Amino acid sequence: MTIDLDGRGTRSLTPGEVLLEVENLSVDFDTRHGRLRAVDGVSWRVRAGETLAILGESGSGKSVSVQALTGILEMPPGRIVSGTARYRGDDLIAMEARSRRRVVGDRITMVFQDSLSALNPVQTVGRQIAECFEVHRGLSRREAMRRAAEMLDRVRIPAARQRVKDYPHEFSGGMRQRVMLAMALALDPDVLIADEPTTALDVTVQAQVLELIADLQTDRQMGVVLITHDIGVVADVADTVVVMYAGHVVERAAARELLDHPVHPYTEGLLGSIPSADLKGHDLPTIPGTPPSLRTVPSGCAFRTRCPLTVAECASAVPPLIPVGPGRETACIRRTSEVPGVTIPHSRLAAGGA
Amino acid sequence: MIRFALRRILAAIPIGLLVTLGVFALVFAMPGDPLRELAGDKPVPPSVLAAERAQFHLDRPLLVQYGLYLKDIVTGHFGETFDGRDIGEQLRLRIPVTVKLALLANAFQFTAGMLFGSYAGFRRNGAVDRLLMLATLFVLAVPFLVLAFAAQYLFGVQLKWFPVSGTADGFPMSYLLPAMVIGLLSFAGLARVLRTSIVETVNSDFVKTARAKGIGEQRVLWRHILPNALLPVITFIGIDLAGIFAGAVLTESIFNLPGLGQFLFQAIQLKEGGVVVLLSTLAFISFIVINLIVDLLYGVLDPRVRSG
Ligand SMILES: Nc1ncnc2c1ncn2[C@@H]1O[C@H](COP(=O)(O)OP(=O)(O)OP(=O)(O)O)[C@@H](O)[C@H]1O
Ligand SMILES: [Mg+2]
Fold first, then answer.
1. Residue whose C-alpha is closest to residue A248's, from A307, A318, A305
2. H or E segment and range at residue A322
């Protein structure tokens, strides 16, 4: 392992450098009802300075996939069946827990949705932030606390020096999410994984938190993986989008392209009912039917039972991701096989343009 | 904090008066004349009987008697028992016995409860966890008296590992067996509270956050899991400690330990209203004080309570 972790001296990031690359990640759960596949062959990558959004309905495996690769998924019942997650070349999944802890929590950090339950209720926020400096940088308690106050200030919490001594329940939801951010950004990570960081917040606070992430991101070319339900968030901050359905990646594209011309019928359904100018703050519109329970995932394409385009072949095999344009892939035989060789149907591109 | 404590104490006073009055009324209502029974078959001159009645306030109506006993307690004039022992002296001798028994029993309960509870919590559905479940059922099913007599017979009479009864062997030898019986009957409850609490805490989001911070498992355990998992245990221990006096009545009587519980038992048998009111007042005060301490401690350990 060649990771420079001493002091504040984090290696500078080259714009465009691939920081975290997940390949073919599959996660099973052993339950009373047998083995369930929650994440199936997921691949994505995030580059320096880039924001990757993982979009999908509840239960599609977004959280499980990132928790598996960072090693915080409860195993058992969870089990990583296959896959690699390379941080600058080193596979986190194959790594020993001890070495992984030097990456996760230091170079790759996480923010969770519910900041009230995600912070230790009986420790001051200062101590929780300071812990990062103590454990990973070996700072003294005092020095770590001083840096914690600096971090609170950096995420724009007023009166930071006093507030380090407060407990999580003494903050408002938006302020608490800033505390989570301060903790996650304390060590200047290369990759920030934010699992629905703004879902619990109202729209204005949500915008402030996202703006804060964006500001801190440009400072250091940090890569951001943003898990979300909210297409408005994708429209605002994402560079690239990965759409997940029932544990599979069904579409991957640059954010603008995906919003303007969704190719997979599922993505189309997600975007369908909202004009793109009006995306802000909207949760995913409902598509007829409900996402399949993992126990009853349909054979072949998991989406076919809700899909308007479904044909008999959809049931025969899980459709692979197939390139449909530069940097774009979709897993739908109806949308990739129409014109062999050439991919996105011209009619669709024309319709989506303008 | 001081205001909180004062408020609690003031609120407790009327409840305490009601409780002790209730206990006294039950004793008062028991049939028979205590002094005449004490004298046995000996003829007692009516004038002596009347004098003694007056000394113990027995010639007054219930509420007046109760009031006079309370006055004696408040002014510190505990007086004598029916058989002429100085009550203040008795308290001095007996309080240490009960306290020693309580502390030892709690030490057993606490040690076993913490060990089994944390083991079962971290190894859910393992052998220890199942054993704990069985032990809980066993303890619920077997009455205290049966277990106490069985232990006394087996370890005292047959194996002679411990004295059968009395305090002739001093502390801790004379106290070990009764303390273990109490500990055995109460550790399972504590263990289960701790187990449930650990299971809940281990799966909570903030433990995930702690792991995501890349800190070692030991640190996660000591800094994040245990400080949260132990909170319900403190409340449990408080309730448990406060109930010690009730347990002491039976245990001290079975193992013949001259503590407060035994004193209360004898006083009830003799219908000694004054002693009963005094001891139930003491029990109530210790109950309130222990609960107050637990609440204050909880407030120190859980910031959510402090500011709420
Ligand atoms: N411990 C577990 N045991 C069994 N199944 C689990 C467990 N944890 C998660 N799952 C299943 O894995 C699937 C994916 O869950 P995940 O939490 O990743 O969804 P998500 O996409 O993050 O949804 P949300 O948007 O609601 O957070 C779900 O169907 C869920 O039921
Ligand atoms: Mg989730």
1. A318
2. strand A322-325
**Domain coordinates of chain A in residue numbers?**
21-238
Q: Note every long-range contact of B285-289, with CB atoms under 8 Å and residues 24 or more positions apart, other chains counting.
A: B285/B16, B286/B242, B286/B245, B287/B242, B287/B245, B288/B8, B288/B9, B288/B12, B288/B16
Residue with more model confidence, B306 or A62: A62
Q: What is the pLDDT of residues A193-227, one digit of tens each?
A: 999 887 777 777 778 888 888 887 887 889 999 99
Q: Taking CB atoms and an 8 Å limit, are A105 and B203 in contact across chains? A: no
Chain B residue with CA closest to A195: the answer is B209
Handedness of CA B201, B203, B208, B209 (dihedral sign): negative
Q: Looking at residue A316, what is its pLDDT?
A: 83
CATH topology of domain A21-238: Rossmann fold (3.40.50)
Rounded Cα distance, A166 and B273, in Å = 53
C-alpha to C-alpha distance for B8 and B299, rounded to whole angstroms: 14
> Which amino acid is it at A223?
G
Q: For residue A64, how far is its CA from the centre of ligand 1 (angstroms)?
A: 6
- pTM > 0.80: no
Q: Which CATH superfamily is domain B88-269 in?
A: MetI-like (1.10.3720.10)
- C-alpha B113/C-alpha A77 separation (Å) is 28
Is A221:A246 a contact under the CB 8 Å cutoff? no
Give the percent of chain B with pLDDT over 90.
Answer: 7
Question: What angle do the packed helices B2-29 and B273-301 form, to 10 degrees?
Answer: 150
d(CA B108, CA B112): 6
Please tell me which residue, B39 or A146, carries the higher pLDDT value.
Answer: A146
Query: Could you tell me which residue, B307 or A262, shows the higher pLDDT?
Result: A262
| Partner A, chain B 242-301, Cβ-Cβ below 8 Å | 301
CB < 8 Å to B203, chain A: 74
Residues of A in contact with B206 (CB under 8 A): 117-121
Nearest to A113 by CA among A171, A38, A63: A63
Ligand 2 centroid – CA A63 distance (Å)? 4
* Domain ranges across chain B: 2-75, 88-269
Number of C-beta neighbours around residue A127 at 10 A? 19
Per-residue pLDDT tens for A46-87?
999 899 999 988 889 999 999 999 999 888 888 999 999 999
Chain B environment of A132 (Cβ under 8 Å): 213
Q: Is A101 on the interface with B (CB under 8 A)?
A: yes
The helix or strand, by DSSP H or E, that contains position A82, with its residue range, turns out to be strand A78-87
Q: Which of A63, A198, A227, A293 to mutate to test the pocket of ligand 1 (most atoms within 8 A of CB)?
A: A63
Between the CA of A110 and the centroid of ligand 2 the distance, in Å, is 13
Length of chain A: 354
pLDDT at position A8 over 80: no
Nearest-CA residue of chain A relative to B223?
Answer: A123
Contact assessment for residue B285 and residue B16, using Cβ atoms and an 8 Å cutoff: yes
Closest-CA distance of chain A to residue B4, Å:
21
For A166-199, write each residue's pLDDT tens digit.
999 999 888 898 899 899 999 989 999 999 887 7
- Report the residue of B125, B201, B206 to disrupt the A interface, i.e. the one with the largest count of A CBs within 10 Å: B206
Q: Residue A117 and residue B213: Cβ atoms within 8 Å?
A: no
- A130 to chain B: closest CA residue: B213
CA distance B299 to chain A (A): 11
| Ligand 1 center to A78 CA (angstroms) | 10
Nearest to B304 among A67, A131, A169 (CB): A169
